[in-house]
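**Paired protein data**
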Amino acid sequence: MNLRTKIVALAVAPLLVALVLVALAVRHQERDLARRERALIEQTYMDQRRSELRSYVELAISVVRPLYDAGLDDEATRAEALRRLAALDYGSDGYFFVYDLQGRSLMHSRQPELVNQNLWELRDSRGRFTIQELIAQARTGGGFVQYEWRKPSSAQTAPKLGYVTTLPRWNWMVGTGLYMDDIQSTMQTLDRQMNQNVATTMLWIAGIAALCLAVVSAGGLLLNLSEHRVAEAKLRLLARQVVQSQEEERGHLARELHDGTSQTLVSTKLLVESAVDTLERGQQPTPPVLGRALVRLNEALAEVRRISHRLRPALLDQLGLPAALERLGAEFGEEGAVAASVAVQGTPCELPEEVKTALFRVTQEALTNVRKHARARQVRIALDFERRGVRLEVNDDGVGFDLQTTQLDPRRGIGLRNMRERIAAIGGRLDLHSGSKGTAIVAFVPAKSLEAT
């Protein structure tokens, strides 16, 4: 770590610690305040609901009070009382219910199918005896009970707060209730608002922290920017020099093979052919070994020429990249079972030496991968001269490969990395796409890189 980095770190560390502590303190205070506010709202809401329920039940009792106080206990009087209670409702889910103290439903305006059923053993989802708890609270003189019941408007079970009382002489429990899912919705909304407020505060603190860090870091970035640019330029220049050195060495080897080894093989071939011709003119039998030697010499000569061509094809220097690619595609198709086609689009122009060498080597590496791994039936090479630059595409219809796994494995994907580095060294971009329908390699060199190369 250099001195500049240490200075920036010493300036940033105390600032970060202070901001983190402030953020934690603010977060704690906001959450504590939100919890107290939530509890207060919930308590106030419940008190209002309890008062409202008590008023509803008192209203219902007042409706049947004249019949009850008249001292009549006949079925007609009770039926009239049940009719009056059934006519009372409030809101979409507000209604009254009547049970006898043994758990039999006498009136339920929203669920008439329950009338005359004994629900003494009815349990809710938590296993509590709903009707037994209601009747027990009513016997004590009336009170509130929290339980679960089906909500008429949604037909879904929801938490409910009920208030019940008794008409002892008639052996009745009368009550009503308010569903509590609305308060749960209100509390959830409040919790969301609380979380949003906390998140907003944290974002403000994070923004302030980012601004402070940006101001502190800007100095360090400005100090290192010029050095970074110089280092990047040197690294790119070094990469180009390495590639150029490789190409020069390839060219040197190609010339040595062509001018040395190839000429020696040609001379040897001529000597063997001369010996065979002398024997044939003297009407002497030609030894079979000379025939086999001549065949082997022809094969070796062809192989040397092929290696020399691959090291540095003469067409690349003499006729340019399009002709070299067409020759490369033709040789690829002749050597194997994969058909190769080459297409040149746009108006060809003379490319810088480094650019056409890099594009040619990328095509070579791509075709090598197709032969070794793709199991393809066809490969297409396309060279497109655009106004924005030059684009090279190599597509095959093979089995493809897992691009991410190959790139992460240090023992694989060396060729892919080499292709990326070659194109990056000349200011271009290389994109790879692979799937079950094949692989596509796209190299693009923009016009500004062509001019700067």
Notes: Residues 161 and 196 are 30 Å apart (CA to CA). The chain has a mean pLDDT of 82.
